[in-house]
DNA sequence: GTATTATGAATGAACG
DNA sequence: CGTTCATTCATAATAC
């Protein structure tokens, strides 16, 4: 793969007050580019029910996939994270889109336009072909679906959950003379 | 100060009062997007040893950082939580990726691939005399903001956000027999 | 060559 | 606190 050495990320953070510091670092960060075989294996694993592989699993997968090309554990990690997230995202969108037609009488919403992938079937936990992980590989219980509807937006937490009133003092005296502290 | 070079960041980050005014169901409350300065200050505080700021400190920090842009106490709180957690995670897992490749040939590959490892900024010097705004008298001089500043450019962070602590035996048989492939 | 899409990577927010 | 979710950013790949 040729290197189009032009990849310098510009995180143009435009803000009212923002003054982007110097970002003139042409750091070339190359991201992992999975091979076809790697993607295939990962996809199969995913379809087999693996959603959130453990560290151990990730390492094993990474090791195996390294045979097909350069890869790191983090790539596997991210891959699963993204894949899972995007599947949900897609399902959610479809669901919302079809939300008008659905009737409470039939819970089958297979009329989605993208159900090809969305359906994904309820992977059963019996994947003999993937004996790689004898452990609780598929304990994700993704079907649980977690009804975190969050109002679709984002919860506006007025009082955020931190209550550090306790004299934790896990940090040194910290002179923190920040002129304000 | 030159202006933000990039015209990107289309994410209409209205940093007003969360009033996006998105027509329709646009009740989207965006998440905090720290400015470069804010990140810098927070990073400095963290590097100075602050790990779990008290409520009071959070308040003060937030107040000060609000000068650079919209920010809330909860943002500061979360920032420290995330930063601390991720630092730890990164450190726990380092180069297990190579661990497998380098077979037990007693041949330590140390610079063959991009499987770099942790940046290893073992600072954590707990500077008691921290100054929030390092005008120029910041104690440390070495590890300034080489790579830890992953907010404005290509972050070449190698480690990934999940812990791997398993002593991990060499490399077991690995029954990844995806025969169906 | 430019616009769009797909997706790797990053991180704020929040859960358990 | 460690882990997970959701959203966003950046870029390789691809369409136009």
From TrEMBL, chains A, B:
Keyword terms, alphabetized: Developmental protein, DNA-binding, Homeobox, Nucleus, Transcription, Transcription regulation
InterPro entries: HD, Homeodomain-like_sf, WUSCHEL-like
One term of GO molecular function: DNA binding
Record-linked SUPFAM superfamilies: Homeodomain-like
An annotated GO BP: plant organ development
Matching Pfam families: Homeodomain
Residue ranges for the DNA-binding region feature of this UniProt entry: 27-91
Transcription in keyword set: yes
Primary location recorded for the protein, binned into one broad class: nucleus
The keyword Zinc-finger is assigned to this record: no
Location(s), subcellular: Nucleus
GO CC annotation terms, alphabetical: nucleus
Superkingdom as given in the UniProt entry: Eukaryota
Residue ranges of every copy of the Homeobox domain listed in the record: 25-90
Recorded family membership: Belongs to the WUS homeobox family.
UniProt-recorded name of the protein: WUSCHEL-related homeobox 5-like
Organism: Durio zibethinus (Durian)
């Amino acid at each position: 793969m040729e290197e189009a050495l032009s990849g310098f990320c510009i995180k143009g953070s435009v803000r009212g007050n923002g003054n982007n510091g110097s970002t003139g670092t042409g750091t070339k960060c190359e991201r992992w580019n999975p091979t076809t075989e790697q993607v295939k294996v990962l996809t199969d694993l995913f379809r087999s029910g693996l959603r959130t592989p453990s560290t151990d699993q990730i390492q094993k997968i990474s090791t195996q996939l390294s045979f097909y090309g350069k890869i790191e554990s983090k790539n596997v990690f991210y891959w699963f994270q993204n894949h899972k997230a995007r599947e949900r995202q897609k399902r959610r969108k479809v669901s919302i889109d079809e939300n008008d037609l659905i009737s409470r009488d039939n819970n089958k919403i297979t009329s989605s336009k993208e159900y090809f992938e969305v359906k994904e079937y309820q992977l059963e936990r019996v994947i003999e072909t993937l004996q790689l992980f004898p452990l609780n590989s598929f304990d994700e219980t993704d079907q649980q679906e977690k009804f975190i509807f969050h109002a679709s937006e984002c919860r506006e937490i007025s009082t955020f959950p931190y209550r550090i009133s306790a004299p934790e003092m896990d940090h040194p005296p910290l002179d923190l003379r920040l002129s304000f502290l």
